[in-house]
Amino acid sequence: MAHSHKAGEAAHDHGAHGHGSTDKRRVMLAACLTGGFMIAEALGGIFTNSLALLADAGHMLTDTLALSLAWYAFHLAERPATSRMSYGFGRVKTLVAYTNGIAIFIIALWIVYEAWQRFLEPPPVLGAPMLVIATLGLVVNIAGFLILHGGDRESLNMRGAILHVVGDLLGSVAAIAAALVILATGWNPIDPILSVLVAVIILSTAWRLMREAAHLLLEGTPQTLDREAIGADLKANVAGLHDVHHVHLWSLDGSNHMATLHARLDKGADAHAAVSAIKTRLASEHGVQHATVETEFDRCADGDGDHDEHHGHSGRDVAKQTHQH
């Protein structure tokens, strides 16, 4: 299986590497921008006594670490497959995306807690310096967002990196709004209130990222693939194919999709031609870059072709049986 996978990966590795290396540079540039300004914003938050600035600086600190981790994930993904890591290191990107989601979730909860404490006893905030620092932060975050936005947004790792920068961007907008209100009215509670608003937005986006990354880590069927539709399409377009069963679909990182299936062929059908046609159809029409196909002419070696249906593996099945790989 490992050898087969490496052979199959060779067909699409060149294009994936080109996009991946570009994303890698984008993430590193964004990490440098974020890390550089994070220090200035933290000092500014302490000087002005602004939670909005301190919260954004704390978020930027974790963002710098998360973007660096995302860069390392892209770096690891470029390594070739080994005998012990037969799928290569591409799934590290999914693991990092999940970890980033958890980090964002924790940060948002901390901001809510700190905001509640400050709302009960609002400290004085220096509005003018806060406005200047928050505006500079917004410029830096917009630059970081534009850098990352041009990358591959099908990649969960890139989406996790973008999410961090978007959270920073929203934090800067909230800090600017809070500074303007404080300068105009002197009402300091606006600072923690807007911090909570940003935290709630971040929580919802982080939850979606974590849920999608967890789905892939559990080897769930990608949302873009429909098991029944793929089976019907193959049966209608591959000559000599009687039916397909034991179909399992999963993805390494949200963009590199895999499949295993059993193909029952008509008597006298050319097995090699049928397998080639199935793999070509899966790649061209369904975006499945690597498939392992087991051919059959009569009985299934694992039992009846519908056997999987009686064990909970319906068309909505999201689990891949480990023993098949």
UniProtKB/TrEMBL annotation:
Protein name: Cobalt-zinc-cadmium efflux system protein
Keyword Zinc tagged: yes
InterPro entries, per the entry: Cation_efflux, Cation_efflux_CTD, Cation_efflux_CTD_sf, Cation_efflux_TM, Cation_efflux_TMD_sf, CDF/SLC30A
Region described as Disordered: 1-21, 299-325
Entry's localization field: Membrane
Domain called Cation efflux protein cytoplasmic: residue spans: 225-296
All residue ranges annotated as the Cation efflux protein transmembrane domain in the record: 28-218
Transmembrane segments: 27-47, 53-74, 95-113, 125-148, 160-187, 193-210
Principal localisation: membrane
NCBIfam families named in the record: CDF
Keyword terms, alphabetized: Ion transport, Membrane, Transmembrane, Transmembrane helix, Transport, Zinc, Zinc transport
Bilayer topology annotation: Multi-pass membrane protein
Family stated for the protein in its record: Belongs to the cation diffusion facilitator (CDF) transporter (TC 2.A.4) family. SLC30A subfamily.
